[in-house]
Amino acid sequence: MQAGKYQPRRDMSETALAELASSIEQHGVMQPIVIRPLLANEDKSEAFVTHEIIAGERRWRAAKMAGKAVIPAIERALSDELAIALALIENIQREDLSVIEQAAALQRFHTEFGMSHAMIAEVVGKARTTVSNLLRLNQLHDTVKDHLANSALDMGHARTLLALSSEQQPIIAQKIIDGGMTVREAEKLVKSILQPAPKINRAEQVQSRDVERLTQRLTDMLGAEVKLKHKKDGQGSVEIFFHNQDQLAALIKHIEAQA
Questions:
Q1: Which helix (H) or strand (E) holds 53?
Q2: 189 lies in a domain?
Q3: Which residue range forms the structural domain that includes residue 209?
Q4: pLDDT in tens, 63-106
Q5: Residue 159 covered by a domain
Q6: Separate counts of helices (H) and strands (E) for the chain
Q7: Neighbour-count burial of 259, counting CB atoms closer than 10 A to its CB (0-12 exposed, 13-18 middle, 19+ buried)
Q8: Which of 11, 65, 75, 237 is most enclosed, with most CB atoms within 10 A?
Q9: Active site residue 57
Q10: What CATH number should be reported for the domain holding residue 24?
Q11: What is the pLDDT confidence band of residue 175, given thresholds at 50, 70 and 90?
Q12: Which one of the listed residues 52, 57, 90, 101 is annotated catalytic?
């Protein structure tokens, strides 16, 4: 037999395989692998190969390491759609796949079989929102995917980086890693990139400070709250606020005395 073409796993840890091989050497293969027969015209790694593995490739490889010539297997005649579904479901249910491997496998349901997010969710037994979030990870730059697969970044960081262009993602991802940023800090960083603080005109800054000084001067002079509106063409208006008739009378008296 040979490894299945629909195996969703990209990496198999040699250490983990060795540990599994040790267990199999002592206790045997506790759970049968699932295989399907190959047609005469299908690709084969060797001429004598008659079956491919649908689920249980790690057990098969570990059993070979343990020197087992025979292991239990269940043969099923499966279509390509069912083959990839079974391979993916087995790995996901055992939680053996990284989120990137899950995302890539789920994408094949959509690309090769035209399944909607809801249909995929039903097939693999996950919530539709979970499936949608995983599928979005396929939009990440390959460098960011590697960081996520290596646990340098987590799902929260990855979802935040999706808001950036593909070119920006690896640059900002490295900043997040180097800075040991939390997801919240990463969100603030990305937000500052997408919505930079508006540049303040130097002349407008000076004018704003002048208006503040004049407003305070008038407030002190009149003993009442003053609001000064200044337009770019030099025109403007002054509002004087009073709280009762006595304060208004005092304001009028003060202005008349200054006239």
A1: strand 51-55
A2: no
A3: 202-258
A4: 999 999 899 999 988 887 788 778 777 766 665 678 888 888 88
A5: no
A6: 12, 5
A7: exposed
A8: 65
A9: yes
A10: 3.90.1530.30
A11: very high
A12: 57
